[in-house]
Each structure stands twice: as C-alpha cells, then as structure tokens.
Amino acid sequence: MDTRGKGKIMPCKLRILSTHDAQAVCLCGRWTFTAPGERTREHIREEWRRHAGAYKPNTKRANKARTMLRATYQNHPTRLVAEDVADALADIRHLCDERGFNLAELDRIAYQHYVAEKGATK
Ligand SMILES: [Zn+2]
C-alpha cells in the first residue's frame, strides 16, 4: 500500500530519476535533488547521504567513516570499496603497534558500541 502523502513518513530511500539532467528524490518526501546538467550516480548518492544521515544516526556514523576512508584510501577512483576498509584496518594495526594500544581490546569496546547503536535505532 502506498502511504505517501497520507501523513505517514516513509523511511529514507534514494530514487535517482535521471543522471542526465540530475534529478533524484528520497522516498521519505523530505528531500529532492535537481541540478542543471549531468551528475554521476555517486555524486547524487553523496548529496542524499547528507540528508539521510540527519534522520538516521547510524547512517550519519557510516557517513563519517566513509568520508574518513575516502580522504585517505582510494582503491577505486569514484567509490568506496572493501579494499579501502582493509587498508585502513591494516594501518590501524600498525598505529596500535607503534603506540602500544591493545587493538583486540579496542575492537571489543567498538563492537559493544556498535551493537548498542544498532539496537537503539530498531
Ligand atoms: Zn529521506
């Protein structure tokens, strides 16, 4: 059943209508994107993530990680790939060695945070 426009807010989901004349909407109804000329899907997706992050705290957290990784690791010219995450994790291991941090303990704490944050938004 389509409940758009009947008072119920749909969850955020990107729908790219055109990259040629750059048009996209979010199914929540709170965001539209139009720009003159062509834009890549990745460009439109980046714009949409800023909107979605404002409504979903875990999306905002993922956006922070994505921004951090894209600033340093670019195994693909236009998008984040799994290899970027692997490279970052390897470098974090080197940093922990250098500083004497217990990576296994930090990962255990990080996992607890992740589980709590994931559970908080269900
Ligand atoms: Zn939305």
Strand order of the largest sheet: 1-2-3
Number of strands: 3
Radius of gyration from the alpha-carbon trace, in angstroms: 18 Å
Judged by helices, strands and strand pairing, the structural class is mainly alpha
**First CA to last CA: what distance?**
22 Å
Low-confidence stretches: 1-5
Chain-wise SSE layout:
Elements: E1 14-18, E2 23-26, E3 32-34, H1 41-55, H2 57-72, H3 82-99, H4 103-120
Antiparallel strand pairs: 1-2, 2-3
Helix pairs in contact: 1-2
Residues 12, 26, 28, 30-31, 51-52, 55 line the site of zinc ion (ZN).
Question: How does this structure look, described?
Answer:
The chain has two domains: 1-55; 57-122, no CATH class. It contains four helices and three strands; from the N terminus they run E-E-E-H-H-H-H. The chain has helices spanning 41-55, 57-72, 82-99, 103-120; strands at residues 14-18, 23-26, 32-34. A hairpin with a 4-residue loop joins strand 1 and strand 2 (23-26). Helix 1 packs across helix 2 (57-72). The longest helix is centred in the last third of the chain and has 18 residues, at 82-99. It binds zinc ion (ZN). Zinc ion is lined by residues 12, 26, 28, 30-31, 51-52, 55.
